[in-house]
Design goal:
Distance between the termini: 18 Å
Helix content: 40-55%
Largest sheet: 2 strands, antiparallel
Oligomer: single chain
Order of helices and strands: HEEHH
Low-confidence stretches: none
Number of strands: 2
């Protein structure tokens, strides 16, 4: 699925007003006439600088751990890529 980006200013005033109902930690589900969910609207909450730094630390720690495990099992990145491509 692809996503299309739209600047808030490009939306009609009615749509902008509707979107103001979305609060942090909450969203909106738009249903059709039969009650089936058709659209979901969730706010995008950007991570803080500190959260991003902590995430990078965790990623680097995980990369080291995976690298050590792969080395211990004598598995290369090429081996992993080949296995992943075989599943397609």
């Amino acid at each position: 699925m692809s996503m299309r980006k739209v600047a808030l200013r490009e939306l009609s005033k009615d749509v902008q007003s509707f979107l103001t109902q979305v609060q942090n930690g909450e969203g909106i589900v738009v249903e059709d006439e039969t009650g089936r969910a058709r659209y979901g609207i969730t706010p995008y909450i950007e991570a803080t600088v500190e959260e991003r730094k902590e995430a990078w630390k965790r990623i680097k720690r995980l990369q080291r751990k995976v690298g050590k495990a792969m080395k211990a099992q004598r598995i290369t990145e090429e081996d992993v890529e080949r296995l992943l491509l075989e599943d397609d």
